[in-house]
Amino acid sequence: MKSKKNYKIIKYFNTSRYESVKVNNNFSSKKIISCFGYIGDIKNQKDFLKIAKKFCNEDVIFRIIYQSFDNNYLKKCEKFCKYNKLNKVQFINGNDVNIKDKLEESHIIVNTSITEVFPITLVEGISMGVPFVSYDKGNISWMKGGLIAKDYFELERFVKLLINNNFFYDKISNQAKTFYNN
Q1: Taking each helix axis from N to C terminus, what angle separates 166-181 and 120-127, rounded to the nearest 10 degrees?
Q2: What is the secondary structure of 129-182 as a DSSP string?
Q3: What is the pLDDT of residues 14-37, one digit of tens each?
C-alpha cells in the first residue's frame, strides 16, 4: 500500500486487474459499515451494495472484507458499483489486512447472508461493542447487540438508524459488550 497526504491507495477488488482507487484516510469523521465473508450469492452482498447506494452523499464508507470469492458474483458487484458510482465502497482482501483492526474500525457490521449457522464475525464484533444488523438466519436471533431484520427494507432502515442516532447506537453497543461478557 502506498500512501499520500490524506489518501491511501488500496487494491480495488484485489483481483488480477489490480485496479487502484483513492480513499480518504481521515476515518475520524467517517462511519465505516462492514460486511465480512466470502463474496458470493449465498452471502448476498448485493443487498449491502444497495444500502451503500442509499448513502452515496453521506460521510460513510462501506467495506466488504473477504478471503475468497465467486468470480462471476464479484464481477456483478463490480459492475453494480461502477454503474451506480459507488466510490465509497471498498473491497478488501482479508488476507492482506488485520481482520481485528477492520472489526474495530467498523461502526456497524452488516450480515446479508441468505443462510447462516453461527456468524462468528458478529460474535467477534459484539465482543468489541460493534453492533450488527442482520437478517434472521441460523442462531442470530439469540444474540444481543444488534438489530435483526425481516427483509431488505428493514435492514436498510436499521443501518440508517444506527448511523444517525448516536444515543440508540450507544445503547446497542453497550448491550453487545454486556451480552458478550456474560
Answers
A1: 100
A2: T--EEEES-TTGGG--SEEEESSHHHHHHHHHHHHH-HHHHHHHHHHHHHHHH-
A3: 332 223 333 333 334 679 999 999
What whole-number distance in Å separates Cα of residue 14 and Cα of residue 3? Answer: 17
Beta-carbon contacts of residue 72 (< 8 Å; ≥ 6 apart): none
Residues 40-50: tens digit of each pLDDT:
999 999 999 99
Average pLDDT (147-163) is 96
Classify residue 85 as exposed, middle or buried by CB count within 10 Å of its CB (0-12, 13-18, 19+): exposed
pLDDT digits (tens, 9 = 90+) for 138-149: 888 888 999 999
Residue 8 makes CB contacts below 8 A (sequence gap 6+) with 1, 2, 22, 23, 25
pTM greater than the 0.85 cutoff: no
**Full strand arrangement of the beta sheet holding 31-36:** 89-93, 60-66, 31-36, 108-111, 132-135, 146-149
- Look at strands 7-12 and 19-24 and give their pairing: antiparallel
122, 136 in Cβ contact below 8 A? no
